Amino acid sequence: MRIAAFTLSCLTFAICHSAGIRGAMPEEEFDHLRAAALLVDRGEIAPAIPHLKAHLKRHPDAPMIRAYLAELLLKVGHEAEAKTHYEQFVRDAAEQEGLAKHHLVHAHTKLMEIAAEADDTYLEQYHRGVALYHLASPASDGGDAWNESTLHKAATALNAAIAADGNDPRPLLPLMEVQLRMDQPGAARQTRLALLASLSDPRWSANERERIRNGG
């Protein structure tokens, strides 16, 4: 996969950018973001983590700060906690546009790597498929042939996830959208029928249920 490098300098910039709206937040909250940025800039990763957690406790709807927290947790070896924050991030970012949505490829790739380390074939293939699907976006500069090849790889991974755990319907939604983009209406209809049968599954968000009802 072609993944943009994620560096600590990017993290520092993003935190500083968020902290720059000082007048819009209490001093204590501003200080948490500023302290995290300064610590990360000095290479002190572990001490920065409690500051990001404190900010998220007050602002749980700050997806990019959550993504950066997950990245730092990975760097200090806290894979289970990082996984929890990445999973929350992808749920939140899927409902948004802008920077958070563009970061979905990176987040799903990290979740794929965590799953591979844990020998979880289902989640490894699921996150690989979703990452590839987002990577082959219509705005990609890879060209039509590259996007088509990437979509084929996404479909292969998502089908592998379904084979590994047929009780989890979540791979079906990106698979249907991949099939639609690959101009496979018959396959997409069959996948949608399975999705409609799973609408009562509590793992679907309201937005995902709407996408299923609308056929992608």
Account of the protein in words:
By secondary structure, this protein is mostly helical. It has 2 domains: 6-104, Serine Threonine Protein Phosphatase 5, Tetratricopeptide repeat (Alpha Horseshoe); 120-216, Serine Threonine Protein Phosphatase 5, Tetratricopeptide repeat (Alpha Horseshoe). It is 72% helix and 0% strand. The protein has 12 helices and no strands. Residues 1-9 and 19-25 have low confidence and may be disordered.
Describe what is shown at a glance:
The chain has 216 residues and is mostly helical. Helices cover 72% and strands 0% of the residues. The longest helix is centred in the last third of the chain and has 21 residues, at 144-164.
Topology:
Layout: H1 8-19, H2 27-41, H3 45-58, H4 63-75, H5 79-93, H6 99-102, H7 104-117, H8 121-135, H9 144-164, H10 172-181, H11 185-197, H12 206-214
Helix pairs in contact: 1-2, 2-3, 3-4, 4-5, 5-7, 7-8, 8-9, 9-10, 10-11
